[in-house]
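User:
I would dearly like some help making sense of a protein record. Take your time, and here it is.
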Amino acid sequence: MKLPRSSYYYTPTASIWKDKKDANLRDRIEQIVCEFAGYGYRRVAKQLHREGIQVNHKKVLRIMRESSLLCAVKRSYKRTTNSQHPYPRYPNLVKDTIITGINQVWVADITYIRIAASFVYLAVILDSYSRKAVGYALSDRLETGLTVTALRMALADRQPLPGCIHHSDQGVQYASCDYVKELKQHGFLISMARKGNPYENAQAESFFKTLKYEEVNLWNYRTLADVIERVPYFIQEVYNTKRLHSSIGYVPPEEFEASEIVKDRNDKTELLPAITN
């Protein structure tokens, strides 16, 4: 009869079930994109896999493209680094360092957030191994006190052992006597990126890109109070605890750190009988 095999085996029930399944998948993708506006199709696919939904990333891309859910990249720039100062500069210690655990390398940087009539400045410190934001501070003035506040928050939360590398740019806020004194008091090794080379502090730049695309660009901040209300929530409740990071296996930083702690304990437990014998 020259009928296609698919037509011979076609049943309306199977077609209805498939359409409903695709509609449910599209609804869930829309929910994920609404919560994480900067997610691309690969990260959306990973989130679906974590929820037990087995779907190919190419299908996710097709659905997001058809539904206009692919994020559009916006680029803006304001200079926040003033490296014209008389303070000492330090070599880059990170480029030759192999990081194997938390609190071995911290990276720090500053960005700006536009409000109605001026700017708010955000200083952040990240753990390089887990990508977790361990310290941050907000201010309407770009000064050393901003970075010191972020550093003290990170110290109170993490209490790193002496020898942790602190990596930043050569900006005056990080090279100043007050900031360097704080670092040396806690036994940090000081590392700085070369002047005018943002790639040597790429992890901090990546964090700021995520912050801008998934939080700042979605809100119309009017005052410093608006920023203080939203940005800490995004850092603590979204970035650290929910957002999937491709560089650490598509898990949130806090989940990654928890798994590393369990792994470390298991390794020590396995070594204990050998040491005892």
User: Anything to note?
Assistant: Strands lie at 105-114, 119-127, 133-139, 165-168, 189-192. The chain has a mean pLDDT of 85. The first helix runs from residue 5 to 9.
